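FIELD: query
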Amino acid sequence: MTADWIPHVYITLRAASRIRDVLAALLLTMGYPSEGLVRVTTTRVVHAFRQHGVRLLLIDDAHFLDVSNKDSRDMLDFLKYLNTELGELSGTMILIGADLHDSPIYLDPQINSRLERVTLHPYGFGTEEEKRDWQRFLKDAEAVLLPYFDCAPAGVFARDLAGHIWRRTQGYVGDTALLLTEALLAAFDDGSETITTDHLDAVPLSARATAGEVDLRTATPKASKRRAKVGAS
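FIELD: result
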């Protein structure tokens, strides 16, 4: 008997997800029927993990897990069970979400003792070290994107447009990935020899990024005026 190799399983949860919702997402991702009692579908999921060689389970938007009512204890026990079963396979479960450190998931003593907390922040652009990290990230992005637009010079993102890209995205990876991809496609379509600030400015981004850019643009002139007054006096 043969089976597809599925080393990584990635699911995204919807609001107020319960155990049956998590099980359904896992089973459908791996091509199994999702109907049945919770205990039956749980066994089916564990069997699928073994059958397909799952070694990494990523649950995105884990803050949507329903842990706000009397069923929360069952959800916490369910997560511990999944983690234990993956551990038997030398696998890892990663919970991704906003403000999980305030969630009952993270406050549960048994789960807390098993989790390694990793907090992700957007890239900064204030200090020299932050700028180097940001440029290193953009250089890695160039290695992925520029082979499809080989007329653009090396360093177009990491060196020439680093500040402009940061101002548009404020260092958020999701907005940056969208910005660079869409700008490259626009430059390709209009026959440009490189990516310019006009290409970057034409890409619509998230409401958060747009508001952040407006704040940065309005703050800069005020700072310039203050410097001018100091110099004049």
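FIELD: remark
The longest helix spans residues 207-232.
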